[in-house]
Protein 1
Amino acid sequence: MSRNDRNLVGRRGFLAGAAAVAAAPSLGALAAAAPAAATPAASAARPNILVILTDDQPKQTEWATPKTVAWLADQGVRFTAGHVATPLCAPSRSSIFSGRQAHNHGVLDNSSPYNLDQHTTVQRYLKQAGYRTGLFGKYLNAWHAADNPPHFEEWLLESPVVYNDGTWNDNGTVHAIPGYSTTVIKNRTLAFLDKAATDPRPWFAFVAPKASHEPNTPEAKYADTPVPAWNGRPGVTEPDRSDKPDFIQNATGTLADAQALRRRQLRTLLSVDDAVQAFHDKLAALGQLENTLVFYLGDNGYTWADHGWLKKSVPYRPSIEVPFYVSWPAGGLGSGTVDNRIVANIDIAPTILDAAGITPDTPQDGHSLLTGYSRDHLLVEWWKHGTAAGGPHTWSSYVSGTEQYTEYYQIHTDAAGKPAGTGSVLFREYYDLVNDPHQLTNKLYQATPQDEQQLGIPALAAALAADRSA
């Protein structure tokens, strides 16, 4: 496929949006095709790739990122149904790198980053195809600071990840760097971009600030910035949680807790917005703004005391939905399109490889967003680490635009990050997302077999089981 043909596919795919009904073939089906390759003639036209990944950023945070929205959403594509396939940091990041569900890439929790097969990663494909690759900020939880991230030519990897005066693996040398981490990441990314003035290779930059993760420490200049008031949503003041799983019944988060958390999160994101604007301006100065494919999203959402829960890791919309913007003017993605398709972090790697003209030689679960592919539902999954009491049970969920069915299991991950347990179903939930978008009424609570038949639960359970084994 020529570059012009590929751009045309991109324009059609994005403009089709939610109206698309024809499913494109899974890139996983192409696993037996030729290995990753790109011809020298195509190299000059291939886009640069910039992935900006925030940490624990839920939706409804656009107040803090107006410059990001103005560039990447208002002039790019705003995906209204952006999701993560696992609402936890390391599994989500591994899905971005590999285009695979967590049960396939193997990073099921935050303790086992070395379970990721680095051969499956987008950075491996891009570097092999002649891209200059860079990583700046957070990589994978529990990654050892002295270990260099595979398939990156340049990196500034922070471990442990903190807001101020962190320790960094700086191209193989571990040392302290003073300053606010978002600013440190911004400056090093800008230096990486600057090299494009003399290095003709296309580049890939993965930029991952700590914001807006706890403890949500803002940059000093934003420490006291006034934040618009927020008075919660129906899930925050839910009067009766008896139809929810035990850990939600025992949750104690309040509206006041959520308001304080939200203020802290928004203030940290103000510095991310400054960094994104700096990237925009640098690309414009380099003449590379048009042919850079940019993604902006969170690695998971976060609940603001919805159902009393003040974290992530749960199968509720504030936890699994994220801001999701894409821009690529040279590929036809620069006109402020709104796309209502169900998309997820597993779609990023396939999209990048599609744009770069690279055919993967390993299976992927996601699909290129440059096609008209439109899924009718998404598998979202999460694993409990260890056997300690409290916290969410392992779960998997069938999520469509109209309904959500969730099963909780007697499963946990062991010290090696591998699943263990009986697998028995502990609890189930079903929500009508059209009439109950805040997930207040679990229709399976005290439901009869006849009720379950009318809700279509047997078919949903079968579909969920098929997804989990795919």
Note: The domain at 3-375 is CATH 3.40.720.10 (Alkaline Phosphatase, subunit A).
Protein 2
Amino acid sequence: MKQFPREAVSRVRVLVVGDIMLDRYWFGEVERISPEAPVPVVHVGRCEDRLGGAANVARNAAALGARVTLAGIVGRDEPGREVHAMLRDAGIHPELVDDDESHPTTLKMRVLGRQQQMVRVDFEGRPSSSCVQSLTDRVMPLMGHHDVVVLSDYDKGALAQVASLINKAREIGVPALVDPKGLDYTRYRGASLVTPNRSEMQQAVGHWLDESDLNARAQQLREQLGLEALLVTRSEQGMTLFMNQERHHVDAQAHEVFDVSGAGDTVLATLAVVRGAGGSWIEAMRWANRAGGIVVGKLGTSTVTAEELE
């Protein structure tokens, strides 16, 4: 594989739009069972916050050396203030909508005992239509000032107008990469690349019988949506890229899988920065596969640097 295009990546301007989350981890030790109920008691000794969702995609792109802008919706609350502070520390330019005082920042709180996740508690709510419109209005003029647009859909509501964003990106000639959610892929029509994982692909096209059947279903979906490329991430089976009359596959590179949370964000960010730097979809897939293999060996939502890739 060629050297990672670090110098070219440093000039890439990435616009990430999507569902922003804060991942909060409480680490502790488990030494007894509660007398109140048959559950373990976790004595918390350390707390850590990390950017999640679209914010984790942005953090990964920045860690690889790109210049990153993040647009999304947060609340006027403590997690929202923490997101702002962490973006600033990561060197990511924020374009955040917080118009609705009643809307909470999406927070996923995980309690871990001896590195084992015991429970996850989610705080979230769907944004109002006015917040979504404000986000769309803010993003539209930003697209022309970036080399690539990443749309990170976690089905939390920020990308309710994703079709309009894709149409705008296509109109001005900026590649749009989408991490999809849900069953209705028609909303991603016209994107440059869509990156479903294995489960999401099965929801979209049904269960395939073999590789030939997968190829037929994938190419049909790609043609129906007018995509340049469709990349299916397949966990331990690696990644498969479908383009016009072409199929390319790379095997998984993970040596040890410790935590897969956030791995898709790392893959998406790597695809974006390599493509934005002038790499082909095939080159982008190979670097993304390497990045994904590294990040699953880390705990929680994490990043991969250019040095690690090399």
Note: The chain has a mean pLDDT of 93.
